[in-house]
Specification:
four-stranded antiparallel sheet, single chain, seven-stranded mixed sheet, mainly beta, about 120 residues, about 0% helix
């Protein structure tokens, strides 16, 4: 699975951005897609995930109520709508994919920078 993330940028606190992740190379019906982020000097952390078949979504507590993950079946694309952004959301955001029966993510995109100014 090849993953291409896009949509990052610079935004003021309280603003919004939408990240996209286009997937290719594999049918995604048995996959889970995820978003992770890594701030400078910190460990990479889970943000959100979606089960491709069924569309169940999961979120880190820090983003619940502000971020929404969705998918476009036809385009093999997942999105992360980020609202009410905070400076602590500043990080490189990565999309990832794993086979639904695997516990760890096998495929990673290249990352897109999100910077939130106060």
């Amino acid at each position: 699975v090849q993953l291409q993330a896009s949509g990052g940028g610079l935004v003021q606190a309280g603003g919004c951005l939408r990240l996209s992740c286009a997937a290719s190379g594999r049918t995604l019906s048995n996959y889970v897609m995820g978003w992770f982020r890594q701030a400078l000097g910190k460990e990479r952390e889970f943000v959100s995930s979606i089960v491709w078949s069924g569309a169940s979504t999961y979120y880190a507590d820090s983003v619940k109520g502000r971020f929404t993950m969705s998918k476009d079946n036809a385009g093999n694309t997942v999105y992360l709508q980020m609202n009410n952004l905070k400076p602590e959301d500043t990080a490189v955001y990565y999309c990832a994919a794993r086979y639904r029966h695997m516990s760890s993510y096998e495929y990673w995109g290249q990352g897109t920078q999100v910077t939130v100014s106060s």
